[in-house]
Amino acid sequence: MEIPAMENPSLIALLMQMKDEMSDNSKEMLNKMDDKAKKLENLKSTVEGKRKNVEDVEIMKHHYYGVEKEMNSNASRVAVVNQLARQLLHVEHPDWELAKEKPEFATSISPKIEELADQFDVLEQTTKEKGERLFDANREVLIHQTCDDIDSWMNELEKQIESDDTGSDLASLNILLQKRQMIETQMAVKARQVNELEKQTKHLETAAPDKDINKIKKLIDEAPPHEDATEFSRLMNELHKAWQELKEALDHRRANLLRNERAQQYLFDANEAESWMSEQEVYMRVEDRDKDEASFMKMKKHESLEAAVEAYADTIRGLGETVKALSAEGHRASYAGDRAKEITNREQEVVSAWARLQMVCEPRKGKLAICSSYSTW
After folding, report:
1. Where are the domains of the chain?
2. What is the pTM of this model?
3. What is the CATH number of domain 9-160?
4. Cα separation of 373 and 140, whole Å?
5. Mean pLDDT by 10-residue block, N- to C-terminus, for the chain (377 residues)?
6. If we measure between CA atoms, which residue out of 259, 204, 264 comes closest to residue 228?
């Protein structure tokens, strides 16, 4: 930005006025930053047990943003003052002859401009440092608050997971499986929060509580542990332990629900199989005495039914394998009592129904063959 030449007294007066204003503003802003820092320290020390109030920290952050905005708005004014000074002291500037004739202007302006630049640099660095401390305090608040929230959520979820209800039929079981899926989705979201919380904790454990602006790099490299590092580690260890226990409980409940799903599916399939075999048995026990073309058609139908019965053998074998698998998984031990007896009884009933069906199938075929031979005479 080019600054037009001015009358000598006006330019120098403007320059000195702007310098004084900026110097006063710089000191005022530094005082504000110190005041905010003191309030932050009081906040940290007065809240019992390090449980900071997130609203108080948010208010401090709002004040900080106001100071930062004010500082940024004054940055352009500092640039104008510096440019005016450079132009005044430059040999090509119209007012340079005045500065040459009265060197006290140059000797007074240069140190003051340097002082102003130094003050503004200190202000910028101080603002940055105070901001970092404020954000670290905000992280502490969020860590405590998030740990409490996740802990409460896990306690409530644990009550649901510890339920012994695994459904009395496929319909109720499907509802429980849907709830379990919703829980796993929630846990996936919480897992991301836990991971982010761990990152924030690690940052605070290595953050220096106070930083000397002239030794920032050294303090970062050799920063002592955060004063609450032990507390953060304890919180994260407790959270990880509770989280692992919750995952194990959820895995155990998932296994129980899936095992019960297979058991309920077996009972459903066993009922369907027994119903089908009973219908075939009733049909095959019907006495057929026809000695005409109808007997021939019945023979053909019987052959179709016989083929269906033979094909159904795979279904019966599959049901038997399901019972064996449930027994191997400890199903009967997990569901001792009525459920174990129910599965055992259904298994025996299915086997008996299959045996009866096979017993009536072959004799009926022989009878139909005899009737069919009569019809050919």
Report:
1. 9-160, 264-374
2. 0.45
3. 1.20.58.60
4. 96
5. 45 56 55 52 42 54 64 66 58 48 55 64 66 60 68 74 72 79 77 69 51 37 51 69 77 79 84 86 66 56 72 82 75 53 81 82 60 46
6. 204
